[in-house]
Amino acid sequence: MLSLLKEMLPASNPAQVITDVGSVKATVVKELESIVTKAGAHFIGSHPMAGAEKNRLSALPAPICS
């Protein structure tokens, strides 16, 4: 994730919010938040709340995919 963030940062701006949608937070926030802040953008760790106990794209309800 760090390499992708470093690739994105040159195109970021102070009004931009950068987030992730992984379920693991502590490591991600610790690693990325200060880098994003130094670049002048904002990082918000989020969570993939749209879903259930099922996985794969085929398990997503239709309104989410449309």
Would you kindly provide a brief summary of this structure?
The protein starts with a helix and ends with a helix.
Question: Which key phrases capture this entry?
Answer:
66 residues, alpha+beta, 3 helices, 2 strands, 36% helix, 12% strand, elongated
Q: What is the terminal-to-terminal distance?
A: 27 Å
Radius of gyration: 14 Å
In spatial order, strands of the major sheet run: 1-2
Query: Looking at the structure, what is the overall shape?
Result: elongated
Number of strands: 2
Please tally the helical runs, counting DSSP H or I stretches of 4 or more residues. Answer: 3
Order of helices and strands: HEHEH
Report the biggest beta sheet as strand number plus sense, adding barrel if it closes. Answer: 2 strands, parallel
Could you tell me the mean pLDDT? Answer: 79
Helix content: 25-40%
SSE-based structural type: alpha+beta
Q: Which stretches are low in confidence, meaning pLDDT under 50 for 5 or more residues running?
A: none
Report the β-strand fraction as a percent range.
5-15%
